[in-house]
Structures
1.
Amino acid sequence: MKLVFLLCLILPAATLDSHLSHTRDWHEVTVGRVGERTILGCRRAKEKGGFAVNWMFRSTNDKQWKLVLSATELKEFSGVASKNSMAMNDPDFQESKDFSLSFIPVEGDEGLYSCLVKRQQRKVKERVILLQLLTVTVIPSMPIPQTSTLQLMAEFEPNFALSQVTWISPGGLTLKSEMESGRTIAKLPWVDITDEGVYICNVISRAYSIDSLFKIAVDIAGLQFSQAALYQTPFIIICPALKGDYVYLYWQPPDTAGRNTMTRLFSYNRWRKANVSNMERVQLAGPPYNAEAGSFSFLLNPDLATGGLYMCEVFLDDKAYRWTTTLSVLKVVVKPAASRLNLYCLYSQRSQVYDVRWEHQNTSYKLEMFAVPGKVQISVPLPINPLTAGNYTCTLVLKNRQTVSATHTVALPPKEGASITTPTLPPFLYALLLLPLVAAAVGVLLWRQKHVSNRGIQRSLSVHSGETENVYENPEDIRQAAPPNSVYMDLKPRAEDVYKELER
């Protein structure tokens, strides 16, 4: 379930009337919120010793001041109106001359606070601050259903020091606001996932005020997931688990929250058997999902640029069901340099990342990390030695404590002069490897022997008549009886001739 944050930013007015009138007996306004630490500023840079500071409080309906906190160069003590959380904001106020008061207000703490600085019983500074307490109300009650009307209300107590209050959308647009019974109300009808983000409550007071930030967590209805994946590792974008008619997949690129940049990536209608895809890295997921039967999910092959916010919207009849997935992608990149090996851990969708860090397999080997949003770098000195070699693991931790890791191994270089050995084979394997060569050689020999024999026989018979039935009966008779121009061939093979042919 994803939380959306509202920021209420109180900005000072551009000018200040330096003369206090009978209708205003304060110098500046500070806005605080019940349960959140608030600081009331009071600084005196030129005091050099013998000083004392007293903080006093008076409610807007009371004329009597009460001591809250008193401090000197030597000690600090509480007054009758002090709270448990009250203290000097700077513990070293004796040296810094920062006499600001810090505390956590509760209901009823709104009113006037006086910072009185004395030196040798002489008043050197007095500053009166009006503390207003802010109440922000979000309607309807959480979780806020999609397609409903979101109402943002800001109310201050006391409210007589305000001149203007406006609400600003995540895209930077000023929402229409109206005053009703002392409250500033802004309405946003028909909200959906694209309305998520940070809304700013801009309050301009009638006097200078210290800028303050207030975060209001708002839960938007609809199941939402916060996930992490490795670069080019298949990832499933899950959709509402029902038998739907058609499905849309929307995507907002990483680290662009509040810019209203959500676009439709994919659509599929199982009744018309029609689909449209606008991203090569995403497709309908296979088993156990079956899009033709109305069971939808998507398969993504992620890279850094395809992280971000995905919304799967499944329609059944006239009703829409939405699940959203916020995805961070982790990638390790290695870049060698002249004297070092640089390892980069890159990640996207930074808003949901809690921590990213490198670790070596030897935990006693401390790594020096250089981090900027979206990247954490370490450098391994060259040449690699037994201490720096090994596995380097980058781990990304999301705010929901889900983790994902990628490991890169740095190996030792081969030693100088080391010979490269080839693996040896057993004798019987060598014999098996030689068998095809021997068989081929024998086949060639037999073919040549047959060819030569046939030619010799033909030439011998062409000289003699058919009376000779066996050319091997009496070779001497044949030699003596042969004509002068005839050729005699001894067809008896000799052992040395066989080996010569094998060598060929």
Note: Helices lie at 93-96, 427-463, 475-481, 495-503.
2.
Amino acid sequence: MTENDLFTTRMRKATRRIHSVSDTLVNAKFALSLRDEAVWGGGLFVFYHIFAFLEDAKERLNMPDFNKLFVNKILYRKKAFEEDLAHYLGENWQSTPKSAALENYIEHLQDLETEHPTLLLAYVYHLYLGLLSGGQILAKKRKMFGEKTTSGNGYTDKVTDFNDIDINELKKEFRNAMNEISERMSKDEQDAFIEESNQVFLMNNLIVNCVGGQNRVLCNMFYKASAILLVVIGVIYAYKMHK
């Protein structure tokens, strides 16, 4: 079987357009979170509920294919999310209200668990692969460009930290497991899985779009830039006056 014949390759091609839109939105939203812990925390909050649901559903369903896709116990992220949320949003982070988009997302997952549990694997595959890919890039950017604050110094984000695991090897094992699972699907089941994969990115976009705080960050950045500009103008004016 060639690379183009793999089910994961088919999914990547079928979701390329919506995936690209999703990447652009996430990068635009969370680039600003590099300078504001509350915004980063808001992003973690919405995705926590999705990852937590999927991991809890895995235990409830106890399906062989569900278990197979979790190729390494390091993939479990629920507790890591909770530790990060306590750090960024405070110990009472669970009282944070959910957006309508997030409530709808959770309701959709609940419906799938009841009616089409195998389709939950589409969410597991794309979300965990995203954390192993784009999530790692965002984590590195936060370390490089994040604003240094007293509370932030020395803290390592747990949700994107996979210790000494070889990420590339883990992604390879993850994709292989997905391809093996797909071999037991009928063509109709594969088509439904790919269709649901597009839904994954669409619903991710909706909850990311509801993460607040970006306007505040932009205002703070504008204020700091304006202050620097005024200082520069003042220096130039003083120099001309005394020239």
Note: The chain has two domains: 7-212, 213-242.
3.
Amino acid sequence: MILAETLLFSLSLVDCGAILFLLVYFIITLSDLECDYLNAQECCDKLNYWLLPKYIGHSFLTFLLLLHGQVILFLLNLPMFIWLSFEYFTVPQGNFGAYDPVEIHNRGQLKKHMRDVMIYIGYYLIFFFIYLYCFILALLKGDPIRRGHEDLIVTEI
């Protein structure tokens, strides 16, 4: 193991929280485009700029879980890693990125992007609470209350 388990899950919480904030930004930006507060070029530039940090954040978390032997969490994160890799690396030729200003209003692309971001938010929200649960379990590893002595709480673990 490279890091302590508590540090692993605290990093997971921070990473997942940062991605959640980023996804809320995606929702706000797409909503602004839908209401015509932003033009398509501005919106797509803003969204495409943050695709790589989102991908790097999730990739870092996935590989960190693999390195620490958290196989179940790694396997649960793997489908999203594969999907984000597919989304990032299969941009059609001629497009500026996954969010293209020419095609975002065509064939319901805007609704598709909104749906995808909402699915991402649900996924990361569930995993935020899973990581929180694992973090609390890692903090409470061992017996914090000595059973032989009543009213004695151990402060060092």
Note: The chain has a mean pLDDT of 87.
